[in-house]
Amino acid sequence: MPLLGCIADDFTGATDLANTLVKGGMTAVQVIGVPTGPLPEADAVIVALKSRTAPVREAVAESLAACEALLAAGARQIFFKYCSTFDSTDEGNIGPVADALVRRLDCGFALANPAFPTNGRTVYQGHLFVGDKLLNESGMENHPLTPMRDANLLRVLSRQTDGTVGLVPFATVEQGAAAIRKAMTGLKESGRRYAIVDAVTDAHLLAIGEAAAGHALITGGSGVAMGLPANFRAAGLLPERGAAAAELPPMRGHAAVLAGSCSRATLGQIGYARNHAHTLELDVLATPDVAALQQQALDWATDKLGEAPVVIAASAPPEKVQALQARLGRDKAGALVEDVLAGIAEALVAGGVGRLVVAGGETSGAVVSRLGVHSLRIGAEIDPGVPWTFAETPGLHLALKSGNFGARDFFLKAFGQ
């Protein structure tokens, strides 16, 4: 039975969380979609949903169904994972899903912390920073699906919930786990449903995790999960596993990268790849035709597949994304890119690709769905937040990368290039 049951609102976020837990010595399996049968054996099971941009009712219903499956399997604690940029809309889905989970677990309170200092996401006085910039000045204000124009997480979350939101400030967090626990208890007793908890270092995240050892529900990014394996170990529930927690089968097959994210980080990675690897950039605005774009990519890649990765990107800067959305509508534009890359992935795997990197949460969801992947065993980390994983079906190594994650050379580093 799993010790920790996790619900992630997108596929790359699920992998990011699983990676954090594996580094802490827990075995982890990522399940694609709401489980309909017995869960795989692992210390942590992460249910990966495509609920970040889904209609609110659908996101809530799927998250509750995932929670029920995890509780039925014996999970002792539930973790609701969202992005380290807290991206959503004023209507949700972070607040509505968290509200539903608080009610289901009858816990009355949960902390909220998206910080991931290793990747530049920190929370200070309730404000989310990306590097040295406030969230709303980081480029996230131009996100095509979930533009973030307010860095104050108390305000953002308050607009999404009928509960109230308090703050555990930096000065308290600096004092350690006991002070954090006391502050959260005080907020709960005063009627607050949520606490935004400041964190600017990994030491803060470890202390927050320790303080939340008895919580039925934790919400946040993957960073706040850093302290959870130690809680289970201290309770005598988790053995020392070390590197064995990340063991995967040997890698085989051709190497490829598919990029659908339009984040600054992914655009920079594509720019680097142009000078170091075979790279094709599809112009979806010029040719908004799924079959034509797929054929173009496959014809181009046929004689280039091998040990070194080929990079196929349908990413674009904000102005091109906006133009495509204006032409097709936001949902159709996103679906077009997802369909194109999912079809390319299917054909590449059929043609011998056994090692595949996918950049972008929505793109990753579309790819794993098209490939019929039902679960992923989590392996070693490539860059912070991004591990290799292995899908028994179809026998494929996958790295599902959040658009915002990874060094500039990530697409080559993943394959040891």
UniProtKB/TrEMBL annotation:
The keyword NADP does not apply. It is an enzyme of class 2 (transferase). Keywords: ATP-binding, Carbohydrate metabolism, Kinase, Nucleotide-binding, Transferase. GO terms for molecular function: kinase activity. It catalyses: 3-dehydro-D-erythronate + ATP = 3-dehydro-4-O-phospho-D-erythronate + ADP + H(+); 3-dehydro-L-erythronate + ATP = 3-dehydro-4-O-phospho-L-erythronate + ADP + H(+). Its EC number is 2.7.1.217. InterPro entries: 4-carb_acid_sugar_kinase_N, 4-carb_acid_sugar_kinase_N_sf, NBD_C, NBD_C_sf, OtnK. The keyword Lipoprotein does not apply. Catalyzes the ATP-dependent phosphorylation of 3-oxo-tetronate to 3-oxo-tetronate 4-phosphate. Belongs to the four-carbon acid sugar kinase family. This is 3-oxo-tetronate kinase.
